[in-house]
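To the structural biology subgroup,

Please find below the input and predicted structure for ATP-dependent Clp protease adaptor protein ClpS, which we are adding to the shared reference set this quarter. The sequence is reproduced verbatim from the submission form. If anyone notices a discrepancy with their own records, reply to this email rather than editing the shared folder directly, so we keep one authoritative version.
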Amino acid sequence: MNTKEKIQEAFSVLEQEANLNEIVLYNDDVNTFDHVIETLINACDHTPEQAEQCSIIVHYKGKCTVKTGEYNDLEPRCTMLLNAGLSAEIV
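Predicted structure (tokenized):
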């Protein structure tokens, strides 16, 4: 007769809960796809593919979350988007 013994280990996991925010980019009738894509690459460190996908989502859905993170990281990025003439906010 074969007996298997199961052992349950008790351990504690400490997690630091981060307060994450998002930069939401909104559609407008002024900026070109190329300008939006270039700005997302520079401001949000997107790859060209990510930036293109976000620009298409913004165009068809009216808005898109383009970056998630802590407020201190997002604030200068959102400012770059706004200075480039895009409509964005941190939520």
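Summary notes: The longest helix spans residues 48-61. Residues 31-90 form one domain.

Regards,
Lab coordination
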